[in-house]
């Protein structure tokens, strides 16, 4: 059987388990072809889950799943293993913001499969994108073969997983899975300063005086990106450690 990576997306009652829980999981596989290219294919689907708590109105307004929709559905912990551990040919999982999905898709449920974060990978593969959200990438890149109707409505688990799979396919065909797995273990390498007075400025356009304070920024992605630019300029490792991203930004 060919190797594949399973793209997953969750809709939840909020962002912080165990206070919050999953109310839908969707997935779409990206499969390696005999010529070693990758294509969207294989299995796909979604399961609505009972989060065993009320869905806040502000969250219902995002994904439009109501308490009535999820009542009597299976709970996430019972269905997650069959989705997240689909067999030995699955070499990894992918999500557009792994720091979010991995809070709920724990190693206990995934069997310890490695992750690809398509947000982090998009920063490197598509640095000229005006934004790096799943939906902006969809409309900016216009991935070949993506069925717009299958990608709707947004903020539902299957359409979002389906959209992410097309970004993943193109990234896999650019650099391969090993590089994508490795990038997930580092903070995001931002192509531009993301906020403040210097927002939108490319790192190489900053003066040393502008760059130096960003090495101490509270945002791990900014620190990491600034340190990489300092390394480029000096040829020496920056003092900032390349720490793993530990928070959802």
TrEMBL record:
GO BP annotations of the record are: DNA metabolic process
User: Which Gene3D superfamilies does the annotation name?
Assistant: Ribonuclease H-like superfamily/Ribonuclease H (3.30.420.10)
Answer whether the UniProt record assigns the keyword Nucleus to this protein: no
Indicate the segments forming the Exonuclease domain, all copies: 4-177
Q: Which InterPro entries match?
A: Ribonucl_H, RNaseH-like_sf, RNaseH_sf
Answer yes or no on keyword Oxidoreductase.
no
State the protein's name.
Answer: 3'-5' exonuclease
Spell out the SUPFAM superfamilies in the cross-references. Answer: Ribonuclease H-like
Q: Name one GO molecular function term.
A: exonuclease activity
Q: Which residues form the signal peptide?
A: none
**Which keywords fit this entry according to its UniProt record?**
Exonuclease, Hydrolase, Nuclease
């Amino acid at each position: 059987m060919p190797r594949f990576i399973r793209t997953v997306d969750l809709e939840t009652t909020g962002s912080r388990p165990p206070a919050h829980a999953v109310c839908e999981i969707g997935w779409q596989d990206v499969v390696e072809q005999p010529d070693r290219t990758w294509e969207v294919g294989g299995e796909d689907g979604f399961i609505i889950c009972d989060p065993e708590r009320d869905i806040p109105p502000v969250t219902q307004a995002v994904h439009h799943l109501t308490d009535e929709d999820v009542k009597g559905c299976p709970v996430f912990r019972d269905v997650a293993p069959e989705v997240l551990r689909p067999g030995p040919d699955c070499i990894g999982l992918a999500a557009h913001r792994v720091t979010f999905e991995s809070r709920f898709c724990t190693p206990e449920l995934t069997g310890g499969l490695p992750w690809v974060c398509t947000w982090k990978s998009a920063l490197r593969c598509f640095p000229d994108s005006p934004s790096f959200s799943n939906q902006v990438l969809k409309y900016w890149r216009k991935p070949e073969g993506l069925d717009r109707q299958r990608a709707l409505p947004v903020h539902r688990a299957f359409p979002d997983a389906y959209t992410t799979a097309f970004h993943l396919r193109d990234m896999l065909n650019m650099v391969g899975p090993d590089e994508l797995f490795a990038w997930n273990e580092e903070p995001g390498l931002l192509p531009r300063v993301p906020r403040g007075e210097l927002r939108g400025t490319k790192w190489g356009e900053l003066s040393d005086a502008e760059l130096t304070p960003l090495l101490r920024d509270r945002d791990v992605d900014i620190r990491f990106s600034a340190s990489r630019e300092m390394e480029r300029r000096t040829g020496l490792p920056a003092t900032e450690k390349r720490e793993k991203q530990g928070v959802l930004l």
